[in-house]
Amino acid sequence: MYNLPYEKTLADFDFSYQPGINQGTIEDLGSLRFTQENQNILFIGTSGVGKTHLATAIGIEGCKQGISTQFIRCSDLINKLQTAQVQGRSEEVLRRYARFQILIIDEIGYLPIESVGAKLFFQLIERRYERKSTIITTNIPLSKWGNTFSDKMLANAILDRLVHHAKVIRITGRSYRMKDHLIEKKDNSGPDLSGFSSQNKERSSETL
């Protein structure tokens, strides 16, 4: 399904684990009304809080409704764009990614983007601006995108086009990847020995 990393729907998302997320807002995004106005979505939060899950779930809804949808990690996208430029095919590849009604770009910020890649990324966002919908997941605040794109002016130009017509969802909850570990740790915390120590004290005093 358009390179989506896994099949997870909004129904699979545990909103009780991330109470800071407005479930109604996410369900509205799942209706895909945002695509009718070519709006973007930016999911911002630390690793493991559910950004990719939500982006993928919206992408799945797009596939179900016959909307052209593509998922790609940011590092892979930059590599493809740079390779295409070396091969003299950058125009072809830019057109390809510009045509999807929903383009999900996952994990912006995990790896730095050099000048050439940043300029190609800007060209793609410029082509999609007010024409298509782009979904972004990122682990860094928007104010620090200049560090990732190695050019603050270019980063601002990219953000200007992404945020102009966008729903920005900031997630400040706990990591889902730690959820099972924390439950297991709680379950394996061992038996309650609070009474054992007091019994030992009593026995010790008897022997004295």
User: Strand sequence of the main sheet, in spatial order?
Assistant: 2-3-4-1-5
Summed up, the helix count is 10
Measured between the Cα atoms of the first and last residue, the distance is: 75 Å
Q: What kind of assembly state do the chains in view correspond to?
A: single chain
Strand % is 5-15%
Major β-sheet profile: 5 strands, parallel
Shape: globular
How much helix is in the residues? 40-55%
Q: Secondary-structure element sequence?
A: HHEHEHHEHEHHEHH
Mean pLDDT: 88
Number of E-type strands: 5
Structural class: alpha/beta
Low confidence ranges: 181-186, 190-208
Radius of gyration using CA atoms only: 23 Å
From the structure above, extract its key features.
disordered C terminus; 10 helices; 208 residues; alpha/beta; single chain; 49% helix; five-stranded parallel β-sheet
Description of the molecule:
The chain is an alpha/beta fold and 208 residues long. Helix content is 49%, strand content 14%. The model is unreliable at 181-186 and 190-208 (pLDDT under 50).
